[in-house]
Amino acid sequence: MMDAEPLLHAEAVAKSYGAVRALRSADLTIRPGEAHALLGANGAGKSTFVKILTGVINKDSGSITMEGQPVALRSPAEGYERGIASVFQDPAMIPDLTVRANLKLTGTDPAAVIAELEQLGIQGLDLAERVSEVPLPFLRMLDLARALSHQPRLLILDEITAALPSDLSEKVTEVMARHTAAGGSVLFISHRLEEVIEHCDMCTVFRDGGDVASFAPKDGREQRIVHSMLGEGAAVEQEQGRRSRAERPEIDESALVVRGLSAGDILDDVNFSVSPGEVVGITALEGQGQEVLFDVLAGARRPRAGEIVVDGQQLNARHPAAAISRGIALVPADRTLAILPKRSIRENIALPSRARFWRWGPISGRKENRAVNGAIDRLSIDTRAASQARRLSGGNQQKLTIGRWLAEGFRTLLLFDPTRGIDIGTKRQIYDLIRELAEEGAAIVMYTSELREIELVCDRALVLYRGRVVAELPADAGEEALLRAAHGFVEASEAGT
Q: N or C: which end of the chain has fewer CB within 10 A?
């Protein structure tokens, strides 16, 4: 297979969004009859590369050839014509249309889809059913059957198994085996390293927007893969004066207790507690239930089972306002969803505090100004664009979302990837603020997609995998231990309760 001419060859592919370099120079070679895994930590450039490969976005530079001929797709539909078909974790279908209408949009023969589904052992497809009414696991298999019906030479599977039950995941790997045995190729993106090792012939690892290694995953197995993802010099930066877990005073009470929490299709029997003055880090690969967990804690989603106890009393939040009234505040990763873009900095910060300053009459401007100014000063928010929040930099917008809770007050702060997409200087300010808030007695739960932040900011870490807490580790456990646990490789001594 190594001697075969490449089916697809990408060389020095680059893509930037303004000053952000999503891909700096990425190479990838896939040969006929090969199942090839594309691996990398969050932010390594995998998603950008696949979007270029499938025609969703255009590359800035570099070359892509298929069987020696240049490829520059302008849409996924062109991909079908060139023999490239992709299947993603979230099926690319319009929910309000019927299955038949969705197939028509992509020029897909319904009879061919039904035949592919039958080969997968799935029957009973109703073409007149709305996509929104089709169960999600079945919808993913329908999307796979649609891709296969176009008889692609290169089948791209991007995290399709991430939220599938084991029986359907096995069907996906059976498809991979049949497709490669017939001379086709598969580009397989998965965070489940056991799947990669068992079912892929080769893998390419991306790091920091470029390829850093290519090898057979069975050689060296998960240890070599993890080392390639992180790099040899991936030592976590140490900050002077950061309080370690051992130095934190022991506190008997818990500000937040989660027992047997289950929600949605993935979150299952999650248990943990957070004490006042403690920063608990949550880390996970994409799609492991972290979003659902934070939605439930913030009152935006109701759980299927379990309970949340706040300061000794059960929380039954039907709305975020109920959680806020109990002192729980959420800072989301997507700051554009949290701010009022056309409103001023002052209005954005004061928003949740208005009810507190209201006294059956005019708002108390003096109290509001004192709280708002205190938040602005503490966070060093740049007020030169004070008239509209949308004119602020990304870092200052994120400060705004945190600042409103400094003005309002809270006991438990939920931070979901709070430093995503902001500059290193602002990151350091947020790190310092998190530690200061903990030292003042706040309980903090922080999800981060950057493993290095666990040691920089947190007292301990909980690792989610397939909707469960699979490991509890000290903050200084190291990136390799965290990444191994995030991929489901957990020692008995690390297992979460």
A: C
